[in-house]
Specification:
The complex is a heterodimer. By secondary structure, chain A is α/β, with parallel strands linked by helices. Chain A has a single domain (2-220), classed as Rossmann fold (3-Layer(aba) Sandwich), CATH 3.40.50.620. Chain A has helices spanning 37-53, 68-77, 92-106, 125-133, 189-195, 234-244, and strands at residues 2-6, 9-11, 19-20, 25-26, 33-35, 56-63, 81-86, 110-114, 136-147, 150-157, 160-167, 170-174, 200-203, 212-218, 227-228. In chain A, helix 2 (68-77) crosses helix 5 (189-195) and helix 3 (92-106) crosses helix 4. Chain A starts with a strand and ends with a helix. Chain B is α/β, with parallel strands linked by helices. Chain B is built from eight helices and 18 strands. In chain B, helix 2 (70-84) crosses helix 3 and helix 4 (214-223) packs parallel to helix 8 (301-319). Classes of the chains: A alpha/beta, B alpha/beta. At the A-B interface, helix 3, helix 4, strand 9, strand 10 and strand 11 of A face helix 2, helix 3, strand 7, strand 9 and strand 10 of B. Strand 15 (227-228) of chain A pairs parallel with strand 18 (295-298) of chain B. Bound molecules: flavin-adenine dinucleotide (FAD). Flavin-adenine dinucleotide binds at residues 204-206, 230-233, 246-249, 261-263, 265, 267-268, 271, 281-284, 287, 300-302 of chain B. The site of flavin-adenine dinucleotide has 26 residues of chain B, from helix 5, helix 6, strand 17 and helix 8.
Chain lengths: 248, 320
């Protein structure tokens, strides 16, 4: 089984979000980049397929050379090799299009991505990729098993979960639950050493006209100070929520 | 030309978001000087949509569509969009909506913007405002394709009543095959879900242990709210993962979010910040949540919450 894990290179969750050039560009000054958290769960799940079911695991990112340390980290966690599509990830459709080429050329059976990236929060790459390839697709996946060609996957739905039966080839958009927090793999020293010599190939993008464009960014309006209510006067809190905030 | 909205229903009943996307779609149609068409699948009574501006309802009744299937539904939406010559297609951000929407965009070869929070600021070029950086910013994006697909963020636009004399038309799309089948659905019955809730009551590590969630559940019950929790609480197994909210959990976009014994870490706030009104109850006046909240009580949850419940019950008794 050939597994491809899509790795989004995103600002660390504690990053200050600022913009530059008249708010048209994300300001990367002082920002630490990490593997997108949802992708981290997916990558760990792929490691189990490698260890227990003999899968090979390739990681892929669409991005410029600055994303390579993030791919190396994924290699240190245990992926066998990495591919970087050498292009600015203009939008989700563009990224999905590039990934579709990688999947076709590499003849992957299973693609595991994350539910969404925590920077642009599009939540669209996995689904678009599946549609472009005409692969089966499971969104918001919180667990799956593969048996031969058969896939049993659980997805989160509003207020519960649903079990889906499908077959390879499949695209899975994972999130926490696909593995538990305690199972998350982090790179160890040996992994970091071996990652240096694992293959990281660079492929050029296919032409694709962008379907969207960012005009600019805005930050949410500054909020007023918190109104404190005494712990001995909770009737006041009820009153404020009713008459002022009008939410009860 | 038209604007097409998909109004989702469960067991024949529309969700609140169905009315929200309809309200939004009506305004977009007005901006474009065209009509709104609302697509429904196995809904019992579609007339309620007229109240929110549905000029035409495309009604599908087909038992083969009783169980949601993203691929088949996405294809049905494509057929409706093609038939109506839709310029803009709008879908909500429910778990089914977010599953569908990328497939619809590819089917229609359309640019897609998800997490959209406002009406287009311009229709030519077509520019929408969407949430990005986990609620820490907004991104004004142009959709450049002839057909535009929008995923509307929940509770961002609200319901806008605008009665029209609508008409219905039966629609019988052809159904494609899907390689994915639903084998079971496990849904809590009678409980308010985080996705649908107007009010969410959330507990953190400050509550010390799972045995202390009784008061959280009681508070939620009094308010008709859903219960949620911080990430460590679910990682510790005190509460199910489905209650984990925040950047890596579920987003919360309710009208009221009450955080109890939650410090307000940046990753937690990222997921709950788009709730309209936030209340924090915490012993530590320095907890970061106080900087993000509208109302705060500095105090011990074990004393504050029972008193709060009592006062709410008195309020309910007087106002019912
Ligand atoms: C990549 C990444 C992603 C993450 N994603 C998420 C996410 O999606 N959601 C999330 O929640 N977290 C997330 N986190 C974790 C986050 O950083 C915090 O660790 C977490 O939110 C803290 O949870 P907490 O507030 O319940 O616990 P704590 O930070 O331990 O806070 C407990 C609070 O309870 C208060 N308290 C104690 N006793 C009482 C009492 N008797 N009455 C009232 N208050 C009391 C304390 O003053 C304290 O403020 C993420 C972290 C990382 C690194």
């Amino acid at each position: 089984m050939k597994v491809l894990v899509c790795i989004s290179h995103v600002p660390d969750t504690t990053s200050k979000i600022n913009f530059m050039d008249n708010d048209t560009k994300f300001d990367t000054n002082g920002v630490q980049y990490v593997i997108n958290p949802h992708d981290e769960y997916s990558l760990t799940r792929a490691m189990w397929l490698k260890e227990n079911q003999g899968a090979t695991v390739t990681v892929v990112n669409v991005g410029n050379a600055t994303t390579e340390p993030t791919l190396r980290k994924a290699l240190a966690i245990g992926a066998d090799d990495a591919i970087r599509v050498n292009a600015e990830p203009i939008d989700g459709f563009f990224v999905a299009k590039q990934l579709a080429e990688v999947v076709k050329n590499g003849e992957f059976d299973l693609v595991i991505a994350g539910r969404e990236s925590i920077d642009y929060n599009g939540g669209m790459v996995p689904g678009m990729l599946a549609a472009l390839l005409d692969f089966n697709f499971v969104n918001a996946c919180i667990g799956f098993e593969i048996n031969g060609n058969n896939v049993t996957a659980t997805r989160e739905i509003d207020g519960g979960k649903e079990v889906l039966a499908t077959s390879l080839p499949t695209v899975i958009a994972g999130q926490k639950g696909i593995v538990e927090e305690k199972d998350l793999r982090i790179p160890n020293m040996r992994g970091i050493m071996t990652a240096r010599s694992k293959p990281l190939s660079i492929v050029e993008p296919v032409a694709f006209d962008s379907t969207t464009a960012t005009i600019n960014f805005e930050k949410p309006a500054a909020r007023g100070a918190v109104k404190l209510v005494s712990a001995d006067n909770l009737a006041e809190l009820v009153n404020l929520l009713h008459t002022e905030a009008k939410v009860i | 030309m038209a604007v097409l909205v998909f109004a989702e229903s469960t067991e024949g009943k529309f969700k609140k978001t169905a009315f929200e996307v309809t309200s939004y779609g009506k305004k977009v149609a007005e901006q474009l000087g065209t009509n709104l068409v609302v697509l429904t699948v196995n809904a019992d009574d579609i007339t309620s949509l007229y109240g929110y501006g549905a000029e035409k309802v495309l009604k599908i009744n087909n038992t083969s569509l009783a169980t949601f299937n993203a691929k088949i539904y996405a294809d049905v939406i494509k057929q409706a969009a093609t038939k109506e010559n839709a310029q803009v297609v709008i879908i909500d951000s429910s778990s089914n909506g977010t599953y569908l929407v990328p497939l619809v965009a590819v089917n229609l070869n359309a640019g897609l913007a998800t997490n959209v929070v406002a009406l287009p600021s311009s229709t030519s070029p077509f520019i929408v405002k969407r949430k990005s950086f986990s609620n820490k910013a907004f991104n004004n994006s142009e959709i450049k394709t002839a057909i535009k697909v929008i995923g509307l963020a929940k509770n961002s636009f609200g319901l806008k009543e605008q009665a029209v004399t609508g008409s219905e038309e039966t629609f019988s799309p052809t159904l494609i095959n899907s390689g994915v089948t639903s084998t079971s659905v496990d849904k809590s019955v009678g409980k308010v879900t985080i996705a649908d809730a107007d009010i969410v009551v959330s507990g953190g590590r400050g509550l010390k242990g799972p045995e202390n969630w009784k008061m959280i559940e009681e508070l939620a019950e009094v308010l008709g709210a859903a219960t949620a929790c911080s990430k460590p609480v679910s990682d510790l197994g005190w509460r199910p993962h489905s209650e984990h909210v925040g950047q890596t959990g579920k987003p919360v976009t309710s009208n009221l979010y009450i955080a109890i014994g939650i410090s307000g870490a940046i990753q937690h706030l990222a997921g709950v910040n788009s709730s309209k009104v936030k209340v924090v109850i915490n012993t530590d006046a320095e907890a970061p949540f106080f900087k993000a909240a509208d109302y705060g009580v500095v105090g011990d949850a074990f004393e504050v919450v029972p008193k709060f419940i009592e006062k709410l019950k008195e309020f309910k008794a007087q106002n019912s």
